[in-house]
Records
---
Amino acid sequence: MSMTYSYYKNMQLNNIIFVYQGEVTADLVSSILQMVENKLEGEGEDRKVKKRVFNVMVECLQNVYHHLDALPPTDPSNPVRDKTALLMIGREEKDYYIITGNHILNDRLPDLKMRLDRINKASKEELKQLYQEVLTGTGFSEKGTAGLGMIDIARKSGQRLGYDFHPVNERYSFFSLEARVSRIAEK
Amino acid sequence: MESLRIESTHKTPRVILDPENGIFEFSGRSIPEDSVGFYTPIFEWLDMYAKQPLPQTHVRFDLEYFNTSSSKNILEVLKRLEAIHLAGHEVRVTWFYDEDDEDMEETGQDYQALLNLPIELSVKVQS
């Protein structure tokens, strides 16, 4: 129990509103969205900022839900694959931040890195164009999502996406993504 | 032809497709994980309607939020309306957005740019 206070202080210092580590299911994503939305509502955040945070949060969380790579079971007596991830939302003086972390197969890493770098280099106008291109491109990706999520997150965030790949073993890495939304509603 | 009515949930919009008066409505939020599952019956309905549409159809989009997988499905809805319009039937789309919601305004502009269909952007009157 002695750790409780340090967890509390640590979360407070890092302005964490919400953190979750565990399996990501559709129901869980819904519950988190509802809870954080209520919290933003209750704290009287600017309506426009609130909408943007909610939008970016929807994309980030659904992105993890659709695209995380489950780890193979480590315990032979429990053949369930590990679909756990980290979801975190915080509020600093100037920005809200949404951080997700999940395992990804190393094979998928170069393509994802390329896409993120392309998005981060694009101007506002180029992002708009990229969004329209992907929107009108044919079909959905194999998991039924439009592949638009990251572009939309970048458009709504208006800031560069932070990311990191932490090597786990020869097959997997841990992918973290950070999206920020300014609390200053520009006119 | 029967009308199609779907009540809103906290993840899916209210949908009214009424073939009696030609007034269609999509309102609320559209953030389901499985957006294809939600929109498929709507596509099927519109494909039927396209065979014998009314001379005038008015479609109101009054959406608060939608996720990117819904945005692709909304484009598919609009493409079906575009086909009806290009076949010589009047189709008007009104895209509502809150005055301070430039993201929703911009999404309306994205659709305007992509389609050969009259889409009017309209600021929502605060209730």
---
Amino acid sequence: MTRSGRWAEWGVSLPSFVWLTVFFVVPTLIVLSIAFHAPSSDGGFASGFTMETWKAVVRTPYKEIVWRTIWISAVTTAVCILLSLPCAYSIARMNTRWRAIVAGLIMLPFWTSFIVRVFAWRTLLNPEGFLQHVLIALGLADASVSLNYNSGAILVVSVYSFLPFAIMPIYTAAEKFDFSLMEAARDLGARSFFAFRKIFLPGVKRGVVSAILMVFIPAIGSYVIPDLVGGRDSELIGNKIYQRTFPDRNLPHASALAAVMGFSVLLPLAWVAWMIKRQDAREAKRLAEATARKLSGGAA
Amino acid sequence: MADEFLVFDHVTKRFGALTAVDDVSFSIKKGEFFSLLGPSGCGKTTLLRMVGGFERPDSGRIYLDGKDITDAPPNMRRVHTVFQNYALFPTMTIWDNIAFSLRLAKKPKAEIEESVDAILEMIRMSDHAWKYPSQLSGGQKQRVAIARALVDRPQVLLLDEPLAALDLKLRQHMLLELDTIHDQVGITFVYVTHDQGEAMSLSDRIAVMNLGKVEQLDTAAKIYEAPRSSFVAAFIGDTNFLVGEIVSTEGDYCTIKVEGLGAVSAYNDRKLDVGRKVHLSVRPEKIRVTLNPPPPEKGAGINIFTAEVTDVIYQGVYTKYWLKSGGRSMSALKPHSRFLLDQESITWKDRVYLWWHPDDGYMVENFSPMDVSLIQDPPAPKESSTP
């Protein structure tokens, strides 16, 4: 690339770079730095460096909450991906008109406020609610079982809320997928499910990766869902951050928790990035080895 | 049995109101290079996809080697397809692409390696084994697609317009290569194309299809020289249709009175009687165009007419002449050579003789006026005298 071309590229990416730095990196660092101050009585933080907050965070038994947050997020992500794959596959196989209609239907819930939709679930899952009555009528549950205010409720509502965010990136990838490859696989002797797994899945790999991120990241930071349909025994880290910020008026403690949460999002992100890189490297290595084998074989 | 290897028995397929394949019955021989030739939408690809298992016929059966395969899923038939867009798996290397069917069949590792390496050798792609499809050229992808479909020796190889995406020179090269591969493997090939040149140069037999039906099933030469219908005559190559009525018969020949032209002598292979309305197809390259009348020793019994040249189109290999004789237009092709009888160049507005042997015309059995539109029309007459 020419020198002027490189400068032009810099010039174009500069505004978004500045934006991200000023409104994302700097605030994150500010939040992190607050965790090293002592709380003040007015709900803010005092000047002067201290490690007391971190010691308090470590002392408080958060292990269970962090663990619950991670497994609920992970299960939500897994369920969303498993549901999205066949869904995206079948939408991509529809004709253009039906595709637009179904894609529109998937986006339709977004016309209603997120909080209203979660509230609707709270009503549905209520002991006097529709679902409980149906389950009792079918003999699958009795009145003592609570559908609401537990981890199960959080899971169901999370899957419901985040499913469109999983379908959309996979569908976008599936739309570009060449379905004659599936026919080719079937033609060469593969059963439908094998073709789906070995041809379709690798074909939409990048879509699946972004779907995982699109679900896992908001699920980790989820606050409204556990607050509305979760119970005392199913709090997530999002609820704790809220409690530390407002009722407890301990901003440094909340900041420390936010930092922990931030890292628990960054770690899987880094892991995904590393996996992709490693796979590319493995393919390159295999290519090089095979070429070497070919060359030595030719010499022998 | 060998003559009825792949059998279509009254096969019909509809898509909504459209009948893509309309009650088709024929059989393909074992080891044959068979072509399905026709314009787009004639049903040839649908027929092929039914053999592959990607479409189910609405009625009729398909048999392969005596077994009914009509309802078998694609993975349960020993039939492989070479797709028009190659459909190579982009996330796999060339080697893995070719090994795909062998691995699915759970063949021993050593056997897989041997078969894949051997076929890579055959298509001269051994050096590219570890590349990905995106790193190959069109012709290379084509060869890999063929190798992938042939490696586990299917009973039938289906080729769906495999050369359509290649440029002319590469296409000609791949034609030779396909021919060689077919000779080497001895597997039955069913080749779908709309290109008559491809079909004629490769096939043992050709089924010419139109509007979901097989119009004629024959060798390339038979189809070209003795087209049964006006569609076959007009779709394969170029032709002139002369419409008339038989006025007399003499042995194997008959005389047809063609309106605007006069008496035309033709070979009467179907022994049609006087009074029958017939449609004679005379291909342009069978018609000679000269400034002088044909020499008497050649002139006996042949059709000779005088005409005016209305247009001359130079086409390299030959020149196409549009001629007007007695109010009707005809086209004729003439190669260029000093050694030909007629050395003088013939140009626009010349008075010429056009002549052909009665054996060079063929009376088609079925005539549809619609098919005449497949033939090139004479150019509009020129007003000014600019050449």
